[in-house]
């Protein structure tokens, strides 16, 4: 992928972050003010629940753990490097991160299969849903590729990516931190920005209404009203 200090690199890693986050802020606020009822995942659970449970459950638990890990490495990079100074602790962290990534991938593949295999779910699936799932798939596969072939990612994230992200936060972007990183890492970063940019226009906005109680809530009870015909169908 492009050198971070080239014109294209500056566009992707110095200009694009501000553009997508500004767009994210403007359009999420606009959507909330104009169409607040759409601030949800627009769940199709009532159409099909079995694959929904086995797909979305692992995906949500896995992605929450992965995002939490990235956030911690961003906020306290020195502490992460100190933790990783002991090989055993480094191995535990790396293996745990990979395990959660694989769990998330299993859940996402289950969700994709559900959209393809269930006719009722397929009918309510929009092009935006497919764009989101492709981007999520790229993000997960690139992350797993990095974890397997460019090991000790928690250490170089703390040493290189965290300072780069902090430079963006300080409005003084320094892309030199990315110069020595593999192309797959740059793809991972760029794809993340694309996810942020598209979020206001998709179901992904439901993560903004966290915490998500459906991760631990009891199953919902659906009651049918409308006469004996519907009551008979409900008993079948």
Structure in words:
It is a single chain. The chain is mainly alpha-helical. The protein has a single domain, classed as Fumarate Reductase Cytochrome B subunit (Up-down Bundle), CATH 1.20.950. The protein has helices spanning about 5-35, 50-75, 75-85, 85-115, 120-125, 125-150, 155-170, 185-200, 230-235. α2 packs across α3. The relative contact order is 0.15. The model is unreliable at about 45-50 and about 230-235 (pLDDT under 50).
Largest sheet data: none
Q: What is the 3D shape?
A: globular
Rg? 21 Å
Structural class: mainly alpha
What is the N-to-C order of secondary-structure elements (H for helix, E for strand)? HHHHHHHHH
Distance between the termini: 57 Å
* Helical amount: 55-70%
Number of helices: 9
The CATH topology assignment is Fumarate Reductase Cytochrome B subunit
| CATH-defined superfamily | Transmembrane di-heme cytochromes, Chain C
Stretches where pLDDT falls below 50 for ≥5 residues?
45-49, 228-235
- How many DSSP E strands? 0
Q: Beta-strand level of the residues, as a percent range?
A: under 5%
CATH top level class name: Mainly Alpha
Integer average pLDDT:
83
Number of domains: 1
Keyword list:
single chain; 236 residues; mainly alpha; Fumarate Reductase Cytochrome B subunit; 9 helices; disordered C terminus
């Amino acid at each position: 992928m492009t050198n971070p200090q080239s014109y294209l690199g500056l566009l992707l890693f110095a200009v694009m972050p501000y553009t997508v986050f500004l767009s994210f802020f403007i359009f999420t606020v606009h959507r909330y003010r104009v169409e607040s009822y759409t601030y949800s995942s627009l769940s199709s659970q009532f159409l099909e629940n079995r694959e929904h449970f086995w797909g979305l459950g692992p995906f949500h638990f896995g992605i929450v753990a992965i995002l939490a890990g990235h956030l911690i490495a961003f906020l306290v990079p020195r502490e992460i490097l100190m933790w990783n100074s002991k090989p055993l602790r480094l191995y535990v962290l790396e293996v745990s991160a990979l395990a959660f990534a694989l769990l998330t991938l299993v859940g996402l593949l289950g969700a994709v299969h559900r959209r393809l295999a269930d006719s009722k779910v397929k009918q309510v699936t929009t092009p935006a849903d497919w764009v989101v799932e492709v981007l999520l798939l790229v993000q997960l596969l690139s992350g797993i590729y990095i974890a397997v072939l460019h090991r000790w990612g928690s250490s170089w994230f703390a040493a290189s990516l965290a300072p780069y992200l902090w430079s963006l936060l300080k409005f003084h972007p320094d892309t030199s931190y990315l110069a020595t990183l593999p192309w797959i890492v740059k793809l991972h970063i760029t794809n993340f920005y694309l996810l942020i940019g598209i979020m206001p226009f998709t179901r992904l906005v439901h993560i903004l209404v966290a915490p998500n109680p459906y991760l631990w809530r009891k199953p919902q009870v659906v009651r049918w009203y409308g006469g004996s015909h519907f009551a008979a169908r409900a008993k079948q």
